[in-house]
Write a sequence for this structure.
């Protein structure tokens, strides 16, 4: 693990009690950071008594390996044995489906609503309805851009801006000794991670005039679109030195396109990605990816603890930043045998 890993670890341990509209797998909290996920996990015994807690969770979808791991973590933590009645909805990456699911949860009078917003905007009305029904809302992974921050109880997730910065600093330091052309595969347009990772990356490479982003296009966080977009970029760009992908699945799709074009990923085209899922880490250990900034999807235990505290009326920090690492090839090889996702 290099010095970037240590920096990511230090950032993940900071806490604050206030949140901005967007935050860092959340919305842009580049100026603030919250408590570590360990702090949330330790609260899992707080409040709630023996009463079963009915919680409605509206998931983004199943667009990536990261999202699958996130869903599995939530379902494993919010079980009947643990004192929960989980009502789960898959929004299939459509915000209108999430809004419909949240309204259904309100009508069912659940105790807690949790969701990972597909995009950052458009949530004011439905969250006002939840507040009027006195149902606490917990944001996981991604944040929302709302005028009234009291519409949700807390937001737990990674600092996406910092993830982008860590990736950008690695590119600037390791590849920027000469002029290089970078292409960027962005996440879902309007989503917090896409907005924030791009922001952080752009800020980080600004200090090195040798690093130039020559094309930036959405791959919608999916492997298939990552491949499709990369195929187009390989045809439209005369020279590509580095690929920055907002998640591993798009990077993995891009690898397929790069190999089909007769080029060697990780060598002819350097690749930096974000997430740290097993497929991505495997590609990193094989040298097909050069660097991965982690985004921890295992939020289930933290969500369980926060839900119990919310039902009990206990104090909760408004922003909780989860712990993330960063990996080079050696770090990925060492971490893979014990990787949980």
């Amino acid at each position: 693990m290099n010095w970037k890993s240590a920096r990511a670890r230090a950032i993940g341990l900071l806490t604050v009690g206030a949140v901005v509209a967007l935050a860092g797998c959340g919305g842009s909290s580049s100026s603030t950071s919250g408590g570590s996920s360990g702090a949330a996990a330790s609260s899992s015994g707080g409040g709630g008594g023996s009463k079963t807690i009915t919680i409605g969770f509206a998931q983004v979808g199943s667009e990536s390996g990261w999202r699958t791991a996130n869903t599995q973590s939530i379902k494993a933590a919010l079980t009947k044995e643990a004192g929960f009645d989980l009502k789960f909805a898959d929004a299939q990456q459509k915000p209108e489906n999430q809004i419909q699911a949240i309204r259904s949860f309100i009508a069912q009078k659940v105790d807690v609503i949790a969701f990972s917003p597909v995009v950052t905007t458009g949530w004011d009305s439905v969250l006002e309805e939840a507040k009027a029904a006195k149902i606490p809302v917990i944001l996981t992974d991604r944040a929302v851009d709302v005028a009234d921050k009291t519409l949700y109880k807390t937001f737990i997730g990674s600092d996406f801006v910092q993830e982008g910065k860590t990736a950008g600093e690695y590119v600037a330091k390791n590849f920027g000794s000469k002029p290089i052309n970078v292409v960027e595969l962005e996440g879902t347009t309007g989503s917090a991670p896409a907005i924030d990772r791009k922001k952080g990356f752009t800020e980080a490479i600004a200090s090195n005039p040798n690093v130039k982003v020559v094309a930036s296009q959405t791959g919608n966080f999916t492997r298939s679109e990552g491949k499709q977009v990369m195929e187009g970029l390989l045809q439209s760009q005369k020279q590509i030195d580095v690929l920055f992908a907002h998640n591993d699945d798009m990077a993995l799709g891009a690898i397929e396109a790069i190999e089909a074009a007769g080029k060697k990923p990780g060598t002819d085209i350097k690749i930096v990605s974000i997430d740290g899922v097993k497929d991505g880490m495997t590609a990193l250990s094989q040298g097909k990816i050069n660097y991965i900034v982690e985004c921890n999807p295992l939020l289930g235990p933290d969500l369980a603890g926060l839900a119990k505290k919310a039902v009990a009326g206990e104090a909760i920090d408004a922003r909780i930043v989860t712990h993330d690492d960063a990996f080079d090839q050696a770090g990925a090889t060492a971490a893979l045998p014990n990787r949980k996702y």
Summary: The chain has twelve helices and twelve strands. The first helix runs from residue 3 to 12. The chain has a mean pLDDT of 88. The chain has two domains: 15-157+296-324, 160-294.
